[in-house]
């Protein structure tokens, strides 16, 4: 599983990465977590507002911080 956190490195973007890492570790999920800061790559996903979260190429959320429960739901579907 590939998880991409989209954002420039702002506090909200870092919080999303922190939440994802926590959920992945707690659930024992085998995943590659990548921080995407290249604006062109972010725009390629159609994300105009960061932070964004992409799981296996599918944009799950943009412009806000997801809850741990929501991230866990996405990762265990």
UniProtKB/TrEMBL annotation:
Pfam families with a match to the protein in the record: Thioredoxin_3
Keyword Nucleotidyltransferase: no
Gene3D superfamilies: Glutaredoxin
Molecular function terms from GO: isomerase activity
S-S pairs: 10-13
Active site: 10, 13
Protein role: Does not function as a glutathione-disulfide oxidoreductase in the presence of glutathione and glutathione reductase. Has low thioredoxin activity in vitro.
Family: Belongs to the glutaredoxin family.
PANTHER family in UniProt: THIOREDOXIN
Identification of the protein by name: Thioredoxin
